[in-house]
Amino acid sequence: MTTLEVPSQDDIEPEVLQTYIDWLYTGTIHINPAIAPESDDANVFVLKALALAYSLDDSVFRSTVKAHLTTAIESKANAGFRRYSIEFVCRPNTPRRVRKYVFRYLRLQPSTGQIRNQMEQLSDHVQKVVSEHLETIFRSWFNVTTNREFEIVDTED
Length: 157
What we know:
- By secondary structure, this protein is mainly α.
- The chain has seven helices and no strands.
- It has one domain.
- The longest helix has 18 residues.
- The radius of gyration is 16 Å and the shape is globular.
């Protein structure tokens, strides 16, 4: 029998843990049907699953979650990472690699200007974290074509 050691209850939501358990049995990521798949809430939920994958050091689950997230973000219905996604990745207890994943994605997207438009709605802490990354994001716009496909290579896996 294998024992699954999970992060503390403060770091993990039961629904996210249930998603992991369901994935262990089915091999697919299931999101609560009450969450609209094109919403930022769905993005946050999957980012929480990615945080769990890093916390558990489960590379297969991590790859599955990243593939799911990429497919969701790339769909025309999804407007990409927005306010709640940004707030989630800027939390102190969110794994650094999840934050890096989101900001790497944003560097490839010309629509990152939406973050600038939402800055006043973000807390001081989140504004500080985002500001630290914005210069790199904006600088990268000059080196990226808008037709470039989204691909993130995470060298820390």
